[in-house]
Amino acid sequence: MKLFIKNMVSLRCELVVKTVLDNLGLQYTVLEFGEIEVKEHISKRMHETLKVALMHSELELMEDKKAMLIEKIKMVIIEMVHYTDELPLTNFSDYLSQKLNYDYTYLSNLFSEVKGTTIEKFIILHKIERVKELLIYNELSLTEIAIKLRYSSLAHLSNQFKKTTGLTPSFFKKLKHKRLIVLENV
């Protein structure tokens, strides 16, 4: 039986889910993008117990197929932008289609319908959050950040940053008190 867990976007989340499943005595395999394959049938009572245990860790057991696909799209983007060293060489639409085995037009239309924004805008918001993070860490120059996040040029990164935040990257870097947006709120 496959289960899908919302907000399972990091190693910490995966460890929390594994702990919950172990504590409930369930046999499972962790698949990618929040999917868990449970090897036995789960009773309604066990399902409810699992749901409550996950909620205590701000994770959610999902039931709706469209909502699950939206979460998978978000998780692929978050993983791609925040947790990989190099962004894919292919364009994002091909990358998402390949990772999720769906036509990009379908994914794009579904995402826009449910979230009220485009996948492209969602990716841009996450890339800008990643730029902020890298600027705050102060380990890479702006040019290195542009290359790392596969911007076509430093000017493109700067323009997108200013359009999204209202600040230039260099001005943002000077603002030490500026906080990052929590990923789940983007």
Task: Describe what you observe in this structure.
With 186 residues, the protein is of the alpha+beta class. It has 2 domains: 62 residues, Alpha-Beta Plaits; 121 residues, Arc Repressor Mutant, subunit A (Orthogonal Bundle). Helices cover 58% and strands 8% of the residues. The chain contains 9 helices and 4 strands, in the order E-H-E-E-H-E-H-H-H-H-H-H-H. A 4-stranded antiparallel β-sheet has the order 2-3-1-4, sandwiched between helices. It is elongated. It starts with a strand and ends in a 12-residue tail after the last helix. The mean pLDDT is 88.
Keywords:
186 residues; 4-stranded antiparallel beta sheet; 2 domains; 4 strands; Arc Repressor Mutant, subunit A; alpha+beta; Alpha-Beta Plaits
